Amino acid sequence: MAPASALLAAALLCAAAVAAAAAGQQQRVLVLADDPAAIKASHSKFLASLKQRGYRGDVKAIGSKGLQLKEWDDWLYDKLVIFGGSKALGGAVDVEQLVEFVDAGHDLLLAVDSGVSEELRALADQLGVDVDASGHAVIDHFSYDAATGAKDRASVLASNYVQSEAVLPGGLKAPVLYRGVGLSIAPGSETAFAALRGSPTAYSGRTDAAQTEAKLAGPAITLVALVQLRNNARVAVAGSVDMLSDAAFAAEATDRNNKNLGRVANEAFCSAISKWAFQERGVLRASNLSHRVVSGAHPGAVKPERYRINDEVEFSVEIRECADGACKPFKASDVQVELVMLDPYVRTTLSHDDAGRFSTQVKVPDSYGVFKWVLDYRRLGYSYIELTETVPIRPFKHNEYERFIVQAYPYYTSIASMMAGFLAVGAFFLWTK
Question: Which UniProt keywords apply (predicted)?
Answer without folding.
Answer: Endoplasmic reticulum, Membrane, Signal, Transmembrane, Transmembrane helix
